[in-house]
Write a structure and sequence with these properties.
Elements (H helix, E strand, L loop, with lengths): L1 H26 L4 E2 L4 E2 L3 E8 L8 E7 L4 E6 L5 E16 L2 E17 L5 E9 L5 E4 L1 E6 L3 E4 L11 E5 L4 H4 L2 H17 L1
Parallel strand pairs: 2-12
Antiparallel strand pairs: 1-3, 3-8, 4-7, 4-10, 5-8, 6-7, 9-12, 10-11
Length: 196
């Protein structure tokens, strides 16, 4: 009996250490934006990936603060989750699709689940990027769990950084047509070569 107890104690300690290591590596995984780089002035689909709970505690809520440069955001419904959206005034209002738009989405909240800590899930938004929204856009996220919460609102490099969407500058119309004169000037020369 004594021998059996002595052999099990190191095994139990090893299992506890492995569990602690798994917990540490899980807590180091951040909520991220898995979308591709977007372009200012275009529509962008933002996918927020939640890789774990608050430690072992399941996730029951995701609240997203929508940055000012991401306009008219619409959340994708998820089975088992309820949605709520808060609006904010646009100053000055914008004209989009032939009508005046005076408010935009400021906050989106999914509540429900629960999402177990050992699983991951994705929460999706669709919105239009402002014409001047080039650069990183931070989507601060409050992750609520059955026990505790995690506030993903820090700067890049922080322990709990906010998810970031990298936005490329819009391509100016002059840049889009820059190659046209060269193509047109090359056209006659090409035709002249064939005439000979």
């Amino acid at each position: 009996m004594t021998t059996t107890i002595r052999t099990r104690q190191p095994l139990a300690a090893l299992l506890m250490a492995l569990a602690a290591g798994a917990f540490t590596s899980a807590t180091q995984a951040h909520i991220t934006v898995s979308s591709d780089t977007a372009t200012a002035g275009a529509y962008a689909r933002v996918v927020l990936r939640v890789p774990h709970g608050c430690g072992p505690s399941p996730t029951t809520g995701i609240t997203v603060q929508v940055p000012a440069g991401y306009l008219l955001a619409k959340p994708m419904p998820k089975p088992g989750w309820t949605l709520s959206v808060e609006k904010a005034a646009l100053k000055p209002p914008l004209r989009m699709h032939g009508r005046e738009v005076s408010e935009t989405t400021a906050q989106v909240r999914w509540q429900g689940g629960p999402l177990p800590g050992e699983f991951f899930d994705e929460f999706v938004l669709l919105g239009k990027l402002d014409d001047k929204a080039a650069g990183p856009l931070r989507f601060s996220v409050l992750q609520t769990c059955e026990k505790g919460q995690a506030d993903w609102a820090g700067e890049p490099g922080a322990d709990m950084p906010a998810p970031v969407l990298n936005v490329a500058p819009a391509v100016a119309p002059a840049e889009q047509g820059a190659a046209a004169p060269a193509a047109s000037s090359a056209g006659p020369a090409h035709q002249h070569t064939h005439q000979h």
